[in-house]
Protein backbone atom coordinates (compact mmCIF):
# COMPACT_ATOMS: atom_id res chain seq x y z
CA UNK A 1 0.00 0.00 0.00
CA UNK A 2 2.77 2.46 0.90
CA UNK A 3 4.47 1.83 -2.47
CA UNK A 4 1.15 2.43 -4.19
CA UNK A 5 0.72 5.74 -2.39
CA UNK A 6 4.17 6.84 -3.53
CA UNK A 7 3.05 6.26 -7.11
CA UNK A 8 -0.08 8.40 -6.79
CA UNK A 9 1.48 11.72 -7.76
CA UNK A 10 3.04 10.18 -10.85
CA UNK A 11 -0.31 8.70 -11.86
CA UNK A 12 -2.00 12.06 -11.41
CA UNK A 13 0.65 13.93 -13.43
CA UNK A 14 0.33 11.41 -16.24
CA UNK A 15 -3.41 10.86 -16.40
CA UNK A 16 -5.22 13.96 -15.14
CA UNK A 17 -6.61 16.01 -18.03
CA UNK A 18 -5.92 19.63 -17.12
CA UNK A 19 -8.88 20.81 -19.22
CA UNK A 20 -11.41 18.49 -17.59
CA UNK A 21 -13.59 18.80 -14.49
CA UNK A 22 -13.11 15.93 -12.06
CA UNK A 23 -15.44 14.62 -9.40
CA UNK A 24 -13.34 12.83 -6.83
CA UNK A 25 -14.80 9.72 -5.18
CA UNK A 26 -12.99 8.15 -2.26
CA UNK A 27 -13.67 4.65 -0.95
CA UNK A 28 -11.73 3.09 1.89
CA UNK A 29 -11.93 -0.43 0.47
CA UNK A 30 -13.84 -2.67 -1.93
CA UNK A 31 -17.06 -2.73 0.09
CA UNK A 32 -17.33 1.05 0.17
CA UNK A 33 -16.54 1.20 -3.55
CA UNK A 34 -19.45 -1.14 -4.31
CA UNK A 35 -21.61 1.12 -2.17
CA UNK A 36 -20.59 4.20 -4.15
CA UNK A 37 -20.54 2.53 -7.55
CA UNK A 38 -24.16 3.36 -8.48
CA UNK A 39 -23.39 7.06 -7.97
CA UNK A 40 -20.23 6.90 -10.05
CA UNK A 41 -21.93 5.12 -12.92
CA UNK A 42 -25.04 7.29 -12.94
CA UNK A 43 -23.01 10.51 -12.93
CA UNK A 44 -20.78 9.09 -15.66
CA UNK A 45 -23.82 8.23 -17.79
CA UNK A 46 -25.86 11.38 -17.23
CA UNK A 47 -23.14 14.02 -16.85
CA UNK A 48 -20.42 13.36 -19.43
CA UNK A 49 -19.07 16.86 -18.80
CA UNK A 50 -17.37 15.43 -15.70
CA UNK A 51 -14.56 12.93 -15.37
CA UNK A 52 -14.18 10.61 -12.39
CA UNK A 53 -11.17 10.31 -10.09
CA UNK A 54 -11.42 7.30 -7.80
CA UNK A 55 -9.14 6.73 -4.83
CA UNK A 56 -8.77 3.87 -2.37
CA UNK A 57 -7.03 3.60 0.97
CA UNK A 58 -6.99 -0.19 1.19
CA UNK A 59 -5.28 -2.63 -1.19
CA UNK A 60 -8.44 -4.76 -1.06
CA UNK A 61 -10.13 -2.06 -3.09
CA UNK A 62 -7.34 -0.75 -5.27
CA UNK A 63 -5.89 -4.07 -6.39
CA UNK A 64 -9.30 -5.38 -7.43
CA UNK A 65 -10.59 -2.20 -9.09
CA UNK A 66 -7.49 -0.42 -10.38
CA UNK A 67 -8.68 -1.06 -13.94
CA UNK A 68 -12.31 -0.13 -13.26
CA UNK A 69 -13.69 1.34 -16.46
CA UNK A 70 -16.20 3.61 -14.76
CA UNK A 71 -13.42 5.91 -13.52
CA UNK A 72 -11.01 7.94 -15.63
CA UNK A 73 -8.23 7.81 -13.04
CA UNK A 74 -7.79 5.28 -10.21
CA UNK A 75 -5.08 5.54 -7.54
CA UNK A 76 -4.31 5.20 -3.85
CA UNK A 77 -5.07 8.08 -1.51
CA UNK A 78 -1.87 9.46 0.04
CA UNK A 79 -1.63 9.66 3.81
CA UNK A 80 -3.53 12.48 5.50
CA UNK A 81 -0.63 14.88 6.14
CA UNK A 82 -0.80 18.58 5.21
CA UNK A 83 1.93 18.41 2.54
CA UNK A 84 0.58 15.28 0.86
CA UNK A 85 -2.99 16.59 0.98
CA UNK A 86 -2.06 19.88 -0.72
CA UNK A 87 0.03 18.08 -3.33
CA UNK A 88 -2.80 15.67 -4.10
CA UNK A 89 -5.35 18.45 -4.51
CA UNK A 90 -2.96 20.61 -6.54
CA UNK A 91 -2.45 17.77 -9.01
CA UNK A 92 -6.03 16.47 -9.18
CA UNK A 93 -7.93 19.77 -8.89
CA UNK A 94 -11.35 18.22 -8.21
CA UNK A 95 -14.44 20.40 -8.51
CA UNK A 96 -16.27 18.20 -6.01
CA UNK A 97 -15.44 15.40 -3.58
CA UNK A 98 -17.70 12.52 -2.51
CA UNK A 99 -16.61 10.28 0.36
CA UNK A 100 -18.36 6.96 0.91
CA UNK A 101 -19.79 5.89 4.28
CA UNK A 102 -16.88 5.98 6.77
CA UNK A 103 -14.16 8.37 5.65
CA UNK A 104 -13.25 11.28 7.91
CA UNK A 105 -9.78 12.61 7.04
CA UNK A 106 -9.15 15.85 8.93
CA UNK A 107 -6.51 17.41 6.67
CA UNK A 108 -8.27 16.44 3.43
CA UNK A 109 -11.62 17.74 4.61
CA UNK A 110 -10.29 20.98 6.06
CA UNK A 111 -8.25 21.71 2.93
CA UNK A 112 -11.23 21.01 0.66
CA UNK A 113 -13.26 23.45 2.71
CA UNK A 114 -10.46 26.05 2.62
CA UNK A 115 -10.40 25.76 -1.18
CA UNK A 116 -14.22 26.04 -1.37
CA UNK A 117 -14.52 22.62 -3.00
CA UNK A 118 -17.89 21.04 -2.11
CA UNK A 119 -17.48 17.77 -0.24
CA UNK A 120 -20.17 15.23 0.59
CA UNK A 121 -20.38 11.95 2.42
CA UNK A 122 -22.96 9.42 1.23
CA UNK A 123 -24.66 6.38 2.79
CA UNK A 124 -23.16 7.39 6.12
CA UNK A 125 -24.35 5.90 9.37
CA UNK A 126 -23.59 7.16 12.86
CA UNK A 127 -23.75 5.40 16.23
CA UNK A 128 -23.42 6.88 19.71
CA UNK A 129 -20.37 4.68 20.35
CA UNK A 130 -18.30 6.59 17.76
CA UNK A 131 -15.57 9.01 18.82
CA UNK A 132 -17.57 12.01 17.59
CA UNK A 133 -20.05 11.56 20.43
CA UNK A 134 -17.71 10.88 23.34
CA UNK A 135 -17.26 13.49 26.06
CA UNK A 136 -13.82 14.18 24.60
CA UNK A 137 -15.05 14.11 20.99
CA UNK A 138 -15.15 17.84 20.24
CA UNK A 139 -12.02 17.70 18.08
CA UNK A 140 -13.44 14.77 16.11
CA UNK A 141 -16.84 16.43 15.66
CA UNK A 142 -15.16 19.43 14.10
CA UNK A 143 -14.35 17.24 11.10
CA UNK A 144 -18.10 16.89 10.45
CA UNK A 145 -18.41 20.65 9.98
CA UNK A 146 -16.24 20.47 6.88
CA UNK A 147 -18.86 18.57 4.87
CA UNK A 148 -21.07 20.58 2.57
CA UNK A 149 -23.80 18.02 3.21
CA UNK A 150 -24.08 14.66 4.93
CA UNK A 151 -26.34 11.99 3.42
CA UNK A 152 -27.18 9.38 6.05
CA UNK A 153 -28.94 6.03 5.91
CA UNK A 154 -31.44 6.44 8.74
CA UNK A 155 -33.32 8.78 11.06
CA UNK A 156 -31.30 7.60 14.06
CA UNK A 157 -28.12 8.99 12.48
CA UNK A 158 -29.76 12.33 11.70
CA UNK A 159 -31.17 12.65 15.22
CA UNK A 160 -27.83 11.81 16.78
CA UNK A 161 -26.02 14.40 14.68
CA UNK A 162 -28.69 16.99 15.45
CA UNK A 163 -28.06 16.62 19.19
CA UNK A 164 -24.51 17.82 18.56
CA UNK A 165 -25.47 20.70 16.30
CA UNK A 166 -24.83 19.04 12.94
CA UNK A 167 -27.90 19.87 10.86
CA UNK A 168 -26.76 19.82 7.22
CA UNK A 169 -28.04 16.24 7.03
CA UNK A 170 -30.53 14.35 4.84
CA UNK A 171 -31.86 10.82 5.28
CA UNK A 172 -31.63 9.32 1.79
CA UNK A 173 -30.97 5.65 2.50
CA UNK A 174 -28.21 3.30 1.40
CA UNK A 175 -26.91 3.15 -2.17
CA UNK A 176 -25.99 -0.52 -1.67
CA UNK A 177 -29.61 -1.39 -2.38
CA UNK A 178 -29.26 0.21 -5.80
CA UNK A 179 -26.04 -1.69 -6.38
CA UNK A 180 -27.46 -5.11 -5.57
CA UNK A 181 -30.49 -4.33 -7.72
CA UNK A 182 -28.17 -3.47 -10.63
CA UNK A 183 -26.30 -6.76 -10.12
CA UNK A 184 -29.61 -8.63 -9.93
CA UNK A 185 -30.78 -7.15 -13.24
CA UNK A 186 -27.50 -8.07 -14.92
CA UNK A 187 -26.91 -11.38 -13.17
CA UNK A 188 -24.83 -13.91 -15.06
CA UNK A 189 -25.78 -17.50 -15.65
CA UNK A 190 -23.25 -20.00 -14.36
CA UNK A 191 -24.07 -23.15 -16.34
CA UNK A 192 -22.08 -25.56 -14.18
CA UNK A 193 -23.83 -24.31 -11.04
CA UNK A 194 -27.18 -24.63 -12.81
CA UNK A 195 -26.33 -28.23 -13.70
CA UNK A 196 -25.26 -28.97 -10.13
CA UNK A 197 -28.52 -27.63 -8.65
CA UNK A 198 -30.98 -29.05 -11.15
CA UNK A 199 -29.46 -32.43 -12.03
CA UNK A 200 -31.68 -35.14 -10.55
CA UNK A 201 -33.57 -32.53 -8.52
CA UNK A 202 -36.03 -34.05 -6.06
CA UNK A 203 -39.31 -32.55 -4.88
CA UNK A 204 -38.05 -31.96 -1.34
CA UNK A 205 -34.60 -30.65 -2.33
CA UNK A 206 -33.31 -27.47 -0.77
CA UNK A 207 -30.22 -25.65 -2.03
CA UNK A 208 -28.30 -23.47 0.40
CA UNK A 209 -25.62 -21.03 -0.74
CA UNK A 210 -23.05 -20.35 1.96
CA UNK A 211 -21.49 -17.04 0.95
CA UNK A 212 -18.21 -15.64 2.28
CA UNK A 213 -18.02 -18.33 4.94
CA UNK A 214 -15.17 -18.73 7.40
CA UNK A 215 -14.06 -21.83 9.27
CA UNK A 216 -16.22 -20.91 12.28
CA UNK A 217 -19.25 -20.80 9.98
CA UNK A 218 -18.44 -24.10 8.33
CA UNK A 219 -18.22 -25.78 11.71
CA UNK A 220 -21.81 -24.66 12.30
CA UNK A 221 -23.50 -25.81 9.08
CA UNK A 222 -21.46 -28.74 7.71
CA UNK A 223 -22.57 -31.32 10.26
CA UNK A 224 -26.19 -30.55 9.44
CA UNK A 225 -25.45 -30.84 5.71
CA UNK A 226 -23.72 -34.19 6.19
CA UNK A 227 -26.83 -35.63 7.88
CA UNK A 228 -29.48 -34.25 5.50
CA UNK A 229 -29.50 -35.77 2.01
CA UNK A 230 -32.30 -33.44 0.85
CA UNK A 231 -29.91 -30.46 1.17
CA UNK A 232 -27.58 -29.43 -1.63
CA UNK A 233 -24.84 -27.03 -0.63
CA UNK A 234 -22.85 -24.43 -2.52
CA UNK A 235 -19.94 -23.04 -0.50
CA UNK A 236 -18.23 -19.83 -1.61
CA UNK A 237 -15.57 -19.42 1.10
CA UNK A 238 -14.21 -16.03 2.06
CA UNK A 239 -10.71 -17.46 1.70
CA UNK A 240 -9.91 -19.87 -1.12
CA UNK A 241 -6.33 -20.78 -0.31
CA UNK A 242 -5.35 -24.44 -0.45
CA UNK A 243 -5.44 -25.14 3.30
CA UNK A 244 -8.93 -23.76 3.74
CA UNK A 245 -10.34 -25.69 0.80
CA UNK A 246 -8.75 -28.89 2.07
CA UNK A 247 -10.16 -28.27 5.55
CA UNK A 248 -13.67 -27.91 4.11
CA UNK A 249 -13.26 -31.13 2.14
CA UNK A 250 -12.00 -32.96 5.22
CA UNK A 251 -15.23 -32.09 7.06
CA UNK A 252 -17.53 -33.26 4.27
CA UNK A 253 -19.03 -36.75 4.42
CA UNK A 254 -21.04 -36.39 1.23
CA UNK A 255 -19.67 -36.18 -2.35
CA UNK A 256 -18.27 -32.79 -3.30
CA UNK A 257 -16.40 -31.14 -6.14
CA UNK A 258 -14.58 -27.84 -6.67
CA UNK A 259 -16.06 -25.59 -9.34
CA UNK A 260 -12.68 -25.24 -11.06
CA UNK A 261 -12.52 -29.02 -11.50
CA UNK A 262 -16.15 -29.64 -12.38
CA UNK A 263 -17.23 -31.15 -15.69
CA UNK A 264 -20.71 -32.11 -16.88
CA UNK A 265 -19.87 -35.73 -16.17
CA UNK A 266 -18.15 -35.31 -12.80
CA UNK A 267 -20.68 -32.92 -11.27
CA UNK A 268 -23.51 -35.44 -11.49
CA UNK A 269 -24.17 -37.12 -8.19
CA UNK A 270 -22.36 -34.45 -6.17
CA UNK A 271 -24.07 -32.92 -3.16
CA UNK A 272 -21.67 -30.05 -2.43
CA UNK A 273 -20.09 -27.58 -4.84
CA UNK A 274 -17.12 -25.56 -3.57
CA UNK A 275 -16.61 -22.27 -5.41
CA UNK A 276 -12.84 -21.84 -5.48
CA UNK A 277 -12.71 -18.52 -7.36
CA UNK A 278 -13.76 -14.94 -6.69
CA UNK A 279 -16.28 -12.77 -8.51
CA UNK A 280 -19.15 -15.25 -8.95
CA UNK A 281 -20.95 -15.18 -5.62
CA UNK A 282 -23.43 -12.40 -6.42
CA UNK A 283 -24.59 -14.38 -9.46
CA UNK A 284 -24.54 -17.77 -7.72
CA UNK A 285 -27.03 -16.66 -5.06
CA UNK A 286 -29.75 -16.90 -7.71
CA UNK A 287 -29.50 -20.69 -7.57
CA UNK A 288 -30.27 -20.95 -3.87
CA UNK A 289 -33.46 -21.45 -1.89
CA UNK A 290 -31.82 -19.82 1.12
CA UNK A 291 -28.44 -18.35 2.00
CA UNK A 292 -26.04 -18.56 4.89
CA UNK A 293 -23.94 -15.39 5.15
CA UNK A 294 -20.53 -15.83 6.74
CA UNK A 295 -18.60 -13.65 9.17
CA UNK A 296 -21.08 -13.63 12.03
CA UNK A 297 -18.76 -15.56 14.31
CA UNK A 298 -15.84 -13.22 13.61
CA UNK A 299 -15.54 -9.51 12.94
CA UNK A 300 -19.05 -9.24 11.52
CA UNK A 301 -21.27 -10.55 8.77
CA UNK A 302 -20.65 -10.02 5.08
CA UNK A 303 -23.11 -8.60 2.53
CA UNK A 304 -26.63 -9.89 3.21
CA UNK A 305 -28.24 -7.81 0.47
CA UNK A 306 -26.48 -9.71 -2.34
CA UNK A 307 -28.56 -12.75 -1.38
CA UNK A 308 -31.76 -11.06 -0.19
CA UNK A 309 -32.27 -9.34 -3.56
CA UNK A 310 -33.07 -12.76 -5.04
CA UNK A 311 -36.02 -13.18 -2.70
CA UNK A 312 -34.49 -15.74 -0.37
CA UNK A 313 -34.17 -15.78 3.41
CA UNK A 314 -30.72 -15.32 4.88
CA UNK A 315 -29.18 -16.89 7.97
CA UNK A 316 -26.15 -15.49 9.80
CA UNK A 317 -24.26 -15.67 13.06
CA UNK A 318 -24.60 -13.51 16.18
CA UNK A 319 -22.32 -10.60 15.27
CA UNK A 320 -24.61 -8.51 13.08
CA UNK A 321 -25.47 -5.55 15.33
CA UNK A 322 -23.33 -3.01 13.44
CA UNK A 323 -25.15 -3.73 10.19
CA UNK A 324 -28.41 -1.83 9.82
CA UNK A 325 -29.57 -3.85 6.84
CA UNK A 326 -29.19 -7.07 8.84
CA UNK A 327 -31.13 -5.67 11.80
CA UNK A 328 -33.87 -4.47 9.46
CA UNK A 329 -34.05 -7.81 7.65
CA UNK A 330 -34.48 -9.58 10.97
CA UNK A 331 -37.29 -7.18 11.87
CA UNK A 332 -39.26 -7.82 8.67
CA UNK A 333 -38.78 -11.60 8.90
CA UNK A 334 -36.42 -11.99 5.96
CA UNK A 335 -33.43 -13.08 8.03
CA UNK A 336 -32.59 -15.31 10.98
CA UNK A 337 -29.67 -15.08 13.38
CA UNK A 338 -28.23 -18.23 14.93
CA UNK A 339 -25.77 -18.56 17.80
CA UNK A 340 -24.37 -22.06 17.41
CA UNK A 341 -24.76 -25.39 15.63
CA UNK A 342 -27.85 -26.29 17.64
CA UNK A 343 -29.78 -23.13 16.78
CA UNK A 344 -28.76 -23.47 13.13
CA UNK A 345 -30.13 -27.02 13.07
CA UNK A 346 -33.37 -25.88 14.68
CA UNK A 347 -33.90 -23.10 12.15
CA UNK A 348 -33.08 -25.35 9.19
CA UNK A 349 -35.53 -28.01 10.42
CA UNK A 350 -38.21 -25.36 10.68
CA UNK A 351 -37.60 -23.91 7.21
CA UNK A 352 -37.29 -27.29 5.51
CA UNK A 353 -40.41 -28.68 7.18
CA UNK A 354 -42.63 -25.62 6.67
CA UNK A 355 -41.95 -24.52 3.11
CA UNK A 356 -44.61 -21.81 3.33
CA UNK A 357 -42.49 -20.19 6.06
CA UNK A 358 -39.43 -20.43 3.81
CA UNK A 359 -41.31 -18.77 0.94
CA UNK A 360 -42.76 -16.04 3.18
CA UNK A 361 -39.32 -15.24 4.59
CA UNK A 362 -37.87 -15.09 1.08
CA UNK A 363 -40.63 -12.78 -0.08
CA UNK A 364 -40.03 -10.53 2.93
CA UNK A 365 -36.32 -10.34 2.09
CA UNK A 366 -36.97 -9.50 -1.57
CA UNK A 367 -39.61 -6.89 -0.73
CA UNK A 368 -37.26 -5.31 1.81
CA UNK A 369 -34.61 -4.74 -0.85
CA UNK A 370 -37.12 -3.37 -3.37
CA UNK A 371 -38.58 -0.95 -0.84
CA UNK A 372 -35.17 0.59 -0.16
CA UNK A 373 -34.08 1.24 -3.74
CA UNK A 374 -33.60 4.85 -4.86
CA UNK A 375 -30.91 6.46 -2.69
CA UNK A 376 -28.70 7.08 -5.72
CA UNK A 377 -31.31 9.15 -7.54
CA UNK A 378 -32.18 11.13 -4.42
CA UNK A 379 -28.54 12.00 -3.74
CA UNK A 380 -27.79 13.02 -7.33
CA UNK A 381 -30.92 15.21 -7.40
CA UNK A 382 -29.63 17.02 -4.30
CA UNK A 383 -26.07 17.63 -5.46
CA UNK A 384 -25.57 20.62 -7.78
CA UNK A 385 -24.00 19.17 -10.91
TrEMBL record:
Transmembrane segments: none annotated. It catalyses: lipid IVA (E. coli) + CMP-3-deoxy-beta-D-manno-octulosonate = alpha-Kdo-(2->6)-lipid IVA (E. coli) + CMP + H(+). GO terms for cellular component: plasma membrane. It comes from the Bacteria. Pathway: Bacterial outer membrane biogenesis; LPS core biosynthesis. GO terms for biological process: lipid A biosynthetic process; lipopolysaccharide core region biosynthetic process. It is an enzyme of class 2 (transferase). SUPFAM superfamilies: UDP-Glycosyltransferase/glycogen phosphorylase (SSF53756). It is found in: Cell membrane. The active site is at 32 (proton acceptor). The keyword Transferase applies. Keywords: Cell membrane, Glycosyltransferase, Lipopolysaccharide biosynthesis, Membrane, Transferase. The keyword Membrane applies. GO terms for molecular function: Kdo transferase activity. Its EC number is 2.4.99.12. Residues 14-178 form the 3-deoxy-D-manno-octulosonic-acid transferase N-terminal domain. Involved in lipopolysaccharide (LPS) biosynthesis. Catalyzes the transfer of 3-deoxy-D-manno-octulosonate (Kdo) residue(s) from CMP-Kdo to lipid IV(A), the tetraacyldisaccharide-1,4'-bisphosphate precursor of lipid A. Belongs to the glycosyltransferase group 1 family. This is 3-deoxy-D-manno-octulosonic acid transferase. It comes from Macellibacteroides fermentans.
